[in-house]
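In keeping with the milestone schedule agreed at the kick-off meeting, the structural modelling team has produced records for the first pair of proteins. Each record is given below as a sequence line and a structure-token line. The laboratory manager (R.T.) confirmed that both were archived under the project's standard naming scheme.
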Amino acid sequence: MKEIRILGRITIYLSFGDFMTETYETPLSSRYASDYMLKLFSSDTRYQTWRKLWVALAKAEMTLGLPVTESQVLELQDHVTDIDYDVVKAREKEVRHDVMAHVYAYGQVAPQAAGIIHLGATSCYVTDNADLVIYRDGLKYLRGELLKVISNLCDFADKYKDLPTLGYTHYQPAQLVTVGKRATLWMQDFLSDLKEIDFAIENIKFLGCRGTTGTEASFMDLFEGDGKKCDQLNKMIAEDFGFTEIFDVQGQTYPRKVDSRILNALSSVAQSCYRMANDIRLLQHDRQVEEPFEKNQIGSSAMAYKRNPMRSERICSLARYLMADALNAPMTACTQWLERTLDDSANRRISLPEGFLCCDAILRLAQNVTDGLHVNEKIVEKTCREYLPFIATENLMMEAVKRGGNRQTLHEIIRKCSMEATAKMKNGEECDLLSRLAKEKEFGLTEEEMNKLLTPSLYIGRCPEQVTALVEKVKPLLKGIDKQSAEINL
């Protein structure tokens, strides 16, 4: 990994693994995800969290009167980070059990405490609780990254709240909106995602240490039938890791519905990012809006003139992967037989970390795009004016009625002239709708009079007001948000 500072903004980490590794490396780590997320889901973080859980268990057991000494707890604390993975690998190959391999390796560096490591616990005490800690921290990080996207869109929407642009329904020209109003549609989706992430965070509870089938039988034996000490043990460990709530009941694992809720929230972010990025791709095709394009960036190996929306395309590509990945969790949640089955393990090792890394990558790209989104105002204005005569026909008809015209007769004149003007445009000629209408005596308006009614701002309704209202509503959420947006790696 190579550390680089670009434009003094943020430090990013570039890995050139795609070009130089001899074995497969996921592009999520070599190209897309942030250094924070890669560290969070690293082996060191996971297995050091396991050791911290063993420390917390030993400390709580000591406090509650079990035969665990302070020196043993201190010895465990002193050896949280020095994990010998070679020892772990060799032991796991021998015993075919990852947790017991780590218990063995921990005991090698903390020999005085070796006999009390994992006392009363089952494997899921460390595996599941560590996952819950990591997922909670990952969600909190992604929440901050999502707020940066919302902040960028907030600024963009406010800046362009008054700029009329052609609206589209069915990707066909429709009534005018504003560039800023369109951005609020994206922003509103992201605000919905924020609520889903908050809900997921709020509903992550701690598993605690409940034994092999969740009955706490081993601890009832250790504490000689004192259930209150079992409750104290769980409460103490949970507090050590910042949890205020513990699942009321459980089998051997925490409910896999939690995973389903988490990946669903990440999928929701992907859906919103895809929608926004796809809109930008459509608008870039019409040259109305463009994603950032760097000075030396190459759009095509053959067509040197091209400015492909590669970042938005990448968002869409990764978003599809994440939406599909999210299907793993509900399939796992519905197949947990009775107190548990191990067919969740291999799937979760892949689907959950990759879901987080992928969502992280998507949000980094979304930050980059929304921070540098460029509006070609002259193109936007030209497109507006090209279609404005059609959009204004209802207003023109109302004005003609005020001057004594027959509404039904006027409607037929507009229909006939519109079809004729559209036919010319399809032949590559300019729109001549107004001049055609002016030639119709029964219409009663001159071309000059009609042009006065073709001010785009007259046709945007309450767009500026709607943008302002949403921006003001969102501002309190954005206090303290770092305005720096992520640089993309490759």
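The second protein of the pair:
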Amino acid sequence: MEEGGNPGSLIKVVHLLVLSGAWGMQMWVTFVSGFLLFRGLPRHTFGLVQSKLFPFYFHICMACAFINLCISAAQHTWAQLTFWESSQLGLLVLSLTLAAINARWLEPRTTATMWVLQTVEKERGLGSEVPGSQQASDSYRQLRMQDPKYSALRQIFFRYHGLSSLCNLACLLSNGLCLAGLALGLRNL
């Protein structure tokens, strides 16, 4: 930090902490916790856990993106932006936009569709198995073939889930590139 506790240095530290914290959280949720929970919990329990965690996760991503964008935008003279500075601002705008789409539009629709799917599955005695068992796969396949409404709902769910996953991966990549740029700009370690 600069001598005298310059507020500019404090803002830079906050920017780095928020950006790295958001990226670390995104890495954990995307590549570790989801896979562990999916492999270890019954199907409907996994859905319940995700429905409680994801609204907070996406809103925290959105808040971190907003804070990072505000800090980054305030640190630069708009008329004299370098290519990297304008790219970083663009990446932060992208991250904020995609996190907001996930938090405010995709996650609520994905979760609502999941609840309807689970209701149908519970009526058929499904949902308490841990994913991966062959017998359960056959039961779900039969349900899809017998119930066109369930099959259509499942397609809607996977459409929303897929879009949400793509938005999440793009946010992760965006924040990772911003973090790499900040790391490459460090003078001394």
